[in-house]
Write a structure and sequence with these properties.
heterodimer; A: 6 strands; B: about 300 residues; alpha+beta; 15 strands; about 20% helix
Chain lengths: ~170, ~300
């Protein structure tokens, strides 16, 4: 029997059904992971945050202090090397803590002036979020935390990664 | 003329192009709003400003207060341990061996190493080894640590190096422990391991069969094991965090009427990694101690 030759010139309609299936799966996955409230805190580069069971989310935008292996960073500006914080005593009036303190006090004063202009109470405790690399020693964390408190930021919160990406 | 048999009409495919166009717009929009790793915050309590002036006399210590503290310490003779203190006394030390679990970038597999060996190898220019035999970057291996585990150690005396305790855990795959099981007496189903340091799981410790009633440390978690859950359970070294969590839950329940029952002070030495502090804060908050203060050991 003669074999039927394939007609290459014939127009084959392009089936979009399989493409639709793929798109539907992607769409469902995206909707599952959507964060409609948005993120008020974004993870800094060059550090790995610890994983926690906490599900508490930041309620407002706050000043962020980052402590990674290299530097203590406030509002994306490198203030002092983390090594210096570790190698010096816990004295808020001397380098390096004094430098962190002066930057934080400057920010706190600006926040208070802004609050007064807006007619809000200015004497409330300042909010600050501290992002610390999970391998940073407690000594550095404790010193930075103490300076934050000394500068008027007494509502301190640590940024962490939600366990299992926040899923139950 | 013979009547031509009419072929059944092929169902016409719906026009999917408009739907595809909609999807193409929706997907990039949702992609920009998707969070694959969600961030949370852990709040701490700073000491409140006191209204007492320096002229006032220091108030006498409240003997009815719990004054709970949780310390993570290291001693040259005793090794690493966690200890709970309350009302001037201390519970028995919970000794542990620290282990680092890495996720290798090359094979995406988890592997657990002794930190002392990892640090010694890194000093010699070798990164921790992966399961496929390859080495991680000797300078950046710290960034590949997935979890810092504290394996509880059973010690018979202060001189005893101790043996790793093994327990039954729930697992969601990859041999990663999730929640530890306790029996009807609220005791861990655990045994010390065999071989040097008890690093080999004890053969006598068997995974519970389906139908057995067990619970985890979470409230109202008592359950009868279903076959699929029983099969997914694993035998894994008992975490010192879980031992502490069980004690903290018991303390919170026992002293629920006290005024400072929600307060805890976590005490650590200078070299303790931040990850351990967060893990202890998590266990404290889960046990009901929501007001966490931090302090330095001997400082």
């Amino acid at each position: 029997m003669a074999r039927k030759s394939r007609k290459y010139g014939e127009d084959v309609p392009f089936s979009l059904t399989s493409m639709m299936d793929m798109m539907t799966i992607i769409l469902v996955f995206m909707i599952k992971n959507i964060d409609a409230e948005g993120q008020l805190v974004t993870q800094a580069e060059n550090l790995i945050l610890p994983v926690s069971t906490s599900k508490v989310q930041a309620k407002e935008v706050s000043l962020t202090v980052i402590v990674d292996k290299g530097f203590v960073v406030i509002d994306n500006a490198k203030i002092v090397p983390t090594e210096d914080v570790l190698n010096n005593e816990m004295e808020v009036d001397k380098y390096p803590l004094a430098k962190i303190d002066s930057v934080l006090k400057e920010r706190r004063t600006a926040e208070q002036e802004h609050a007064l202009k807006m007619g809000l109470p200015a004497d409330e405790a300042g909010n600050i979020i501290v992002q610390i690399d999970k391998n940073i020693p407690y000594d550095a964390m404790y010193k930075v935390m103490a300076v934050c408190g000394y500068s008027g930021y007494t509502n301190i919160a640590f940024a962490v990664l939600m366990k299992n990406g926040g899923e139950e | 003329m013979a009547k031509e048999i009419k072929k059944p009409a092929r169902p016409e495919e719906p026009d999917l192009l408009p739907a595809m166009g909609l999807f193409t717009i929706l997907i990039p929009m949702l992609l920009s709003m998707t969070a694959f790793q969600k961030l949370a915050i852990v709040e701490i309590n700073m000491p409140e400003r006191s209204m007492i002036t320096m002229d006032n006399e220091t108030p006498p210590p409240d003997e009815q207060a719990l004054n709970l503290s949780l310390a993570i310490a290291k001693s040259e003779t005793l090794g690493d341990y966690l200890v709970i203190g309350a009302r001037g006394g201390f519970q028995p030390n919970v000794y542990f061996k620290e282990m680092w679990t890495f996720r290798c970038k090359k094979d995406a597999q988890l592997i657990t190493h002794d930190p002392e060996k990892v640090i010694a190898d890194a000093a010699a220019g070798h990164g921790p080894k992966c399961k496929d035999g390859s080495e991680m970057d000797a300078e950046k291996y710290l960034y590949e640590i997935e979890t810092i585990e504290l394996w509880a150690i059973d010690k018979q005396s202060e001189e005893d190096p101790g043996r790793v305790m093994w327990a039954i855990y729930t697992s969601q795959g990859e041999n990663v422990p999730d929640s530890v099981y306790v029996d009807g007496n609220n005791s861990f189903i655990a045994m010390p391991g065999e071989g040097p340091m008890g690093l080999t799981p004890p053969p006598a410790l068997k995974k519970p069969s389906p139908g057995v009633a067990l619970a985890t440390l979470s409230p109202n978690s008592a359950r009868t094991l279903k076959p699929d859950v029983a099969n997914s359970n694993i035998i894994y070294p008992l975490s010192a965090y879980d031992v502490i969590a069980k004690d903290l839950i018991a303390i919170h329940t026992q002293f629920i009427d006290l005024e400072d029952v929600d307060n805890i002070i976590i005490v650590a030495d200078d070299n303790t990694q931040f990850d351990k502090i967060i893990s202890l804060m998590d266990r404290s908050k889960d046990a009901g101690f929501v007001k966490v203060n931090l302090a330095k050991l001997g400082g």
